[in-house]
Write a structure and sequence with these properties.
Chain lengths: 185, 137
């Protein structure tokens, strides 16, 4: 039980993620989380504005159910399968974050400097999360998938488009962390 | 009831990603600074395991639950939308510290402000749908 409560090493979780992907394919479906964002648009009536959303969303109910499951899994893990443990970050990363104004790096899953509700009362605070979410939603649909669809499923099935997408993920991530972070933090 | 298995797989997926710490903003930041092997280990071992599972099942002619050959949907050919869309997603991934899977997982884990990220991600997807025909693919 002690092992369960601790963070799990990468060589356990990586293969487990691949097994989740394989189970979805075995069940005749795909492993792709960002599609749910488009499904939510369709349910909300976006089909009136764009053909792109004029789809039979009920055929993708299984994926929404999986997302609800993921949410429940997050709850179970956080409240029943974990004891408070700091994330074992590289000390250099912690120092760098301190210089940017993130003081408790690794002491929680998310930085309070970005995700506390108090922070969201400021224009800057709310803008960061809204812009970040917007880029995630726009980018994943433009690229036709996210980490699960491209990095895991696409690369596992040796698809070139997914390699391009993952290269894009890293171009964007590196630009954000190395060029834009110094400007906004 | 036919959806119960997907609920179960989702729960397992949520627990795995939480326990892997891949849902942590800090881990994503550390990854993009190349200061830890952790995230590369997760993604790399997932891909290697995935390649093996798919190749072995293909060679053995494994059938899926519906009785058809194991099949991964092929992505449309091209590169512009993959590079451009991927870059835009990467910017958001690094800033939010969460990709779509973890957005759902973290809301469940009690990060209620992640709902803001979810709503704006849905909005971003909607705007893509509006502009789709004007964008290069």
């Amino acid at each position: 039980m002690e092992f369960i409560l601790q963070p799990w090493p990468w060589y356990i979780t990586g293969p487990l993620i691949a097994i989740v992907m394989f189970i979805m394919i075995y069940l005749g479906k795909t492993f792709g989380m960002s599609s749910n964002l488009a499904t939510i648009c369709t349910i909300a009536g976006a089909g009136k504005k764009s053909d792109f959303f004029r789809t039979k969303w009920r055929e993708r109910t299984w994926n929404l159910v999986m997302a609800v499951g993921a949410l429940i899994g997050g709850f179970i893990s956080q409240f029943y399968l974990s004891e408070p443990t700091n994330i074992d970050l590289n000390p250099q990363t912690v120092l760098k974050l301190k210089s940017l104004g993130f003081n408790d790096a690794g002491q929680s899953i998310l930085p309070g400097e970005l995700y506390s509700w108090a922070n969201l009362l400021s224009i800057k605070g709310i803008s960061i999360l809204v812009i970040a979410g917007f880029l995630v939603g726009f980018g994943t649909r433009y690229a036709g998938g996210c980490t699960s669809g491209h990095a895991i499923t696409g690369l596992s099935s040796l698809q070139k488009p997914s390699l391009f997408a993952v290269i894009g993920f890293f171009i964007g991530g590196l630009i954000m962390i190395h060029l834009i972070f110094p400007l906004i933090f | 009831m036919k959806y119960l298995k997907f609920l179960f797989v989702g729960i397992v997926f949520g627990i795995i990603l939480m326990k892997s710490e891949a849902v942590s903003w800090y881990r994503i930041y550390e990854m993009f600074r190349f200061e830890s092997f952790h995230m590369y280990g997760i993604i790399g071992s997932a891909i290697i395991t995935g390649i093996l599972l798919l190749e072995i099942s293909r060679k053995m002619g494994v059938k899926n639950i519906e009785g058809f050959k194991i099949n991964v949907i092929k992505k449309r050919k091209g590169y512009i939308n993959y590079i451009a869309g991927g870059t835009i997603f990467g910017l958001g991934w690094a800033l939010a510290g969460a990709c779509p899977g973890p957005i759902f997982i973290l809301i469940g884990a009690g990060a209620t402000s992640m709902i803001i990220v979810l709503i704006s991600a849905v909005l971003g997807t909607f705007v893509y749908g509006l502009l789709r025909n004007k964008l290069p693919h």
